[in-house]
Amino acid sequence: MRPRRSPPDTPRMHSSRTLPRLFAAACLALASATALAAPPSDAEIDRLLKASRAQSMLGAILPQMEEMQRQQFAQITAGKELDAKQRAEVERIQARTSEIVRKTLAWEEMHPVYVQVYKQTFSSDDVKAMAKFYESRAGQNLLDKTPLLMQNLMGAIQQKMIPMMEALQAELKDVSAQEAPPETPKTPARRKRK
Q1: Alpha carbon of 112 to those of 26, 54, 67, 124, 184: distances in Å?
Q2: Nearest to 62 by CA among 110, 29, 18
Q3: Over the stretch 39-83, which tens digit does the pLDDT of each residue have?
Q4: Measured distance CA(174)–CA(107) in Å, rounded
């Protein structure tokens, strides 16, 4: 009996030749797509950073971080009797920590980091489109209203959490109000005789 042949209009696959060719074609297609996505230039990134107010946003983060730091120092020293010398030392360490944070997060230090991260993350076209958006009235409006948006979101989240917290507190109260079952004394395990 003869093996069946495919009809003449159906292409025959030669797996030993076709798969490597398909793989090579796929690699070339991916490489060309990657090559088309050119990285942004420093100037394009600077335009975006200026339009998105990155420097002022970074500056706004610093006071928040310092406040968190003050709270952490307060927690560490809470309930501890510190003499004047110890309090002065804690204040010195807190001031030094604040100075280190300010130097580390200064725009002059962070700008190169922003540029590098944007280059690794976005293409030139992405950066141009984002800069164009932030330069627009809608983009500036978004930046202007972001603090209010965040404040409103936090309020909405807190309102959503209140009923859940009340339910959890009620459940905890119910559990603590229930009498614990009396403990049964454990019987010692018997030793096996040899």
Answers
A1: 36, 13, 26, 17, 68
A2: 110
A3: 999 999 999 999 999 999 999 888 888 888 888 888 888 888 888
A4: 53
